[in-house]
Design goal:
By secondary structure, the chain is an alpha/beta fold. It has helices at residues 42-55, 70-85, 99-111, 126-140, and strands at 2-14, 17-26, 30-40, 61-67, 113-118.
Length: 142
């Protein structure tokens, strides 16, 4: 089984506002991707980055995904199971925000072998800084 390392980040100018996402994929080569949405939130862009990164990998790949978003990491590793059991309600019985993206991420996470890792943002971590730059480039392209 081959291995891929993915770094993701999302950014938003205003929240909501113009948003961008960035992805670095490291295999034998280094690939980068970015994109944007006009009216969105930072959390949506963080989720979109993870979705886009995983979707670029084939099923026989072991993925290690680094995100600087505790919302994404905790959501997929801790909260999602209970959200689904409780019919997409949070612990405080309010609807889960970004359900459409959580469903996409859940499907990808179930199909792929993903190990989720958190990295502190803006802490000099090279790949995280590049993912952040790509996310902000997405905003600039709007």
């Amino acid at each position: 089984m081959s291995k891929v390392i993915i770094f993701t980040d999302g950014a938003c100018s205003g929240n909501p506002g113009a948003g961008g996402w960035g992805v670095i994929i490291i295999t034998d080569e280094l690939e980068t991707y970015s994109g944007s949405e006009e009216k969105t939130t930072n959390n949506r862009m963080e989720l979109k980055a993870a979705i886009m990164g995983i979707s670029k990998s084939d099923a026989s790949t072991k993925i290690i995904l680094y995100t600087d978003s505790k919302y994404v990491k905790d959501g997929i590793t801790k909260w999602l199971r209970n959200w689904k059991i409780k019919n997409w309600l949070t612990a405080s019985k309010t609807p889960v925000k970004n359900k459409d993206l959580w469903e996409q991420l859940d499907a990808l996470n179930s199909f792929h072998d993903v190990t989720w890792r958190w990295v502190k943002a803006h802490d000099g971590h090279r790949e995280n800084e590049i993912a952040d730059m790509l996310a902000n480039k997405g905003i600039d392209n709007i």
